[in-house]
Amino acid sequence: MIRYKKEKRSVKIISCLLKRHMLKIRQIKRSISNIDIEKALRNPIHKESIITDELGRKSQKIIGDFTTVDINPDTMEVITTYPTKKSKRQRYLKRR
Question: In this structure, which long-range contacts are made by residues 9-15, counting pairs with CB atoms below 8 Å and at least 24 apart in sequence?
């Protein structure tokens, strides 16, 4: 499981072991490396606000240049990851 915690200005990767079997399978099928996930967490182009679903589970999307990562903000565990769409990347890079 990939966990990270915020330090003063940077994000520190605590553990890069993906314990969830389905997460690892999806990551391989989507051709996303651990390095891409780490880059998205360290240098995001956009962070969306924390949302809570009807079951009370929290999540936050962190959008990187090539990878979008969904995390649980309470435990800082990666829920899922997928490639960032070109249109979304261009939209957030224009705002910079």
Answer: 10/42, 11/41, 11/42, 13/38, 13/41, 13/42, 14/76
Give the whole-angstrom CA distance, residue 80 versus residue 22: 9
Q: Is the pLDDT of residue 81 over 80?
A: yes
- Residue corresponding to tokens 């995390």: 71
DSSP of 58-90, one letter per residue? EEEEEE-SSEEEEEETTTTEEEEEEEPPHHHHH
Please state the rounded mean pLDDT for residues 59-76. Answer: 92
Question: The tokens of 85 are what?
Answer: 């769409």
Token pair listed for 13: 């990767």
Q: The whole model's pTM is what?
A: 0.75
CA neighbor of 82 nearest in space, from 7, 28, 39? 28
Mean pLDDT of 12-41: 76
According to DSSP, residue 30 is labeled T
